């Protein structure tokens, strides 16, 4: 029986996500500064993971791109670079898991 609210039974209508995972960020990093660091690669948006208890950055983030070429160029160009005095690691992010929708 097909159920449109269950992702495994419903065709995924969104295209692939081109996201880079960025680690070893300074704790002072926010979404704006992360997007600015990747500005030469035309990022769509940037997200930083925050600790819910302290409100401080966890030192990791994600940068989303419009296409695979931009993402690959950003990974090659930014991996091992200094951001805020720290050497960051950049890699391709895993796809988000499909979730049940009510």
UniProtKB/TrEMBL annotation:
Lyase recorded as keyword: no
Domain called RRM: residue spans: 18-95
Keyword RNA-binding among record annotations: yes
Entry-linked Gene3D superfamilies: 3.30.70.330
InterPro entries for this protein: Nucleotide-bd_a/b_plait_sf, RBD_domain_sf, RRM_dom, SLIRP/GR-RBP-like
Gene Ontology molecular-function annotations: RNA binding
Designated name of the protein: RRM domain-containing protein
